[in-house]
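@channel sequence for tomorrow's demo:
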Amino acid sequence: MYALVDCNNFFVSCERTLDPTLENKPVVVLSNNDGCVVSRSREAKELGIPMAAPAFKYKQLFKEHDVKSFSAKFELYNFKSQEVMKIAQSYVLEYEVYSIDYQKLILIIS
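structure tokens (generated this afternoon):
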């Protein structure tokens, strides 16, 4: 049996662990030079902010809707990803990591 673990809005979720007041608010995480959106909260998606959107083109929308934007913190995301993997690995025989927020697991059913 196979299972896929995909941590939805992973970078945003990691930011929310640092600041719980971000829950239920529009949040985006921006790429390495703050150029493009690389992660969006559900609330940001509902505002129509697309993945890979150039941040400068959405600056006014961010301001109008109080969208919180963050520079990517890849060390934090990697650390949190490893925590998720440790939990998932405790339930499986084998696993493959596809990306920082996506793992393929082979489950042990007893």
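heads up for whoever presents: The chain has four helices and six strands.
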